Amino acid sequence: MNLSTEALLNLLKDKNIRPSYTRIKIMEYLAARRTHPTADEIYSNLLHEIPTLSKTTVYNSLNTFVKAGLVRTVTIEDNEARFDADTSDHGHFKCDMCGNIYDFPVDMAGLHTKGLSRFIVKQRDIYFKGTCPGCLENNIN
Ligand SMILES: [Zn+2]
Ligand SMILES: [Zn+2]
Predict the structure, then answer these.
(1) pTM for the full model?
(2) Counting ligands in written order, which one lies closest to the CA of residue 102?
(3) Are 62 and 39 in contact (CB under 8 A)?
(4) Ligand 2: distance of its center to the CA of 117 in Å?
């Protein structure tokens, strides 16, 4: 998902979010990476580009994006929220060894959710944990 600055600008405008330079940079950072960064990671990586950046601004911007449905949180670990600019249906796999989080396609429509027919579902998260192919290979060698 590599969106141009122009496209990001319109994305924010569409959601009535004032497209400040910082917000565009944060959105750009998220859209260009599939690594599901934490707020701290985003902050440290953007600091050299935006020396006036504060952690509060990063947190507030991310909150705004999440509320607008532009970004979703991945809380595969209780103690850290990660952020994902891909809001389409997909599952997350966390590798115990390298800590990377991988996306995988999930057929949410085909999921059997018996017993929820009278509930309103607002969010669906699918989290798997284990060992990724890269770590498996390194372990054998
Ligand atoms: Zn791994
Ligand atoms: Zn994801």
Answers:
(1) 0.85
(2) 2
(3) yes
(4) 27
Query: Residue 117: helix, strand or coil by DSSP?
Result: coil
Ligand 2 centroid – CA 81 distance (Å): 12
Percent of the chain with pLDDT over 90: 72
Q: What's the gap in Å between 82 CA and the centre of ligand 2?
A: 9
Q: Which ligand has the nearest atom to the CA of 94? A: 1
Q: How far is the CA of 115 from the centre of ligand 2 (A)?
A: 27
- 96 in the same domain as 79: no
Reported as a single tens digit per residue, the pLDDT across 57-115 is: 999 999 999 999 999 999 888 788 999 999 999 999 999 999 999 999 998 878 878 88
The CA-CA-CA angle for residues 27, 45, 128, to 5°, reads: 70
Check which CATH number belongs to the domain holding 110 and give it. 3.30.1490
